[in-house]
Write a structure and sequence with these properties.
Blueprint: H1 24-44, E1 46-48, E2 55-57, H2 69-82, H3 87-103, H4 105-117, H5 121-130, E3 148-151, E4 158-162, H6 164-172, H7 177-187
Antiparallel strand pairs: 1-2, 3-4
Helix pairs in contact: 3-4
Length: 189
């Protein structure tokens, strides 16, 4: 705990605030009284959330935080909302997100596939195996690591896996078969 002054204590206004709104001596006295209660909680496998004041099982607390997971998530959300327009906060959040994704590639990939296309990494791998590891249109092996997931934008139904040029071709044609027929006619004249 820092002893620098943060305003007056609620117990003794003439003394500096130490923790929990108390001066240092009152805080230490409170901690002495709480010790047996904390030992009893530890024996029962519970902790007291410092935000909501409820006793919860130890697995409901992230790492060594004094707040339970729901309260901790609420504090993080409130902080993010309060700082959503701060460029330094936004950049730091992006950097942490990229670092996490780099450290957790398989989890991040699976989460992306589930969120965007409704398939798991296992579904993707099965589809890739069914296609023989090549693009569903041109039959070439991908130059990059993965083939793109082609899906109907209206229904979200996955049609297959495509290389980037074939996926972009369909995108530029706006998935319109008539436009693609006209393009074939144009190329073969």
């Amino acid at each position: 705990m820092s002893t620098r002054s943060r305003g007056p204590a609620t117990c003794h206004p003439e003394r500096a605030l130490f923790a929990r709104g108390l001066c240092q001596s009152c805080y230490r006295k409170l901690r002495q009284e709480e010790r047996p209660i904390e030992e009893d909680r530890r024996r029962r496998g519970v902790r007291l959330c410092s935000r909501c004041g409820q006793e919860k099982l130890l697995d409901q607390f992230p790492k060594e935080h004094g707040r339970c997971k729901p309260c901790y998530a609420a504090v993080v959300r409130e902080y993010a909302e309060a700082h959503k327009d701060d460029p330094a906060f936004i950049e730091a959040r992006r950097r942490r997100s990229r670092e996490w994704a780099r450290r957790n590639r398989a989890y991040a990939r699976n989460a992306h596939l589930l969120r965007k296309y409704g398939i798991t990494a296992e579904d993707y791998d099965r589809l890739l195996e069914e296609q023989g590891g090549v693009c569903a249109i041109c039959g070439r092996r991908p130059k990059q690591r993965y083939l793109a997931v082609d899906h109907e934008h209206g229904t979200g139904r996955v049609r297959g896996l495509l290389c980037d040029p074939c996926n972009q071709m369909l995108g530029f044609a706006e998935d319109d078969p008539e436009r693609l027929r006209k393009a074939i006619a144009y190329l073969t004249r």
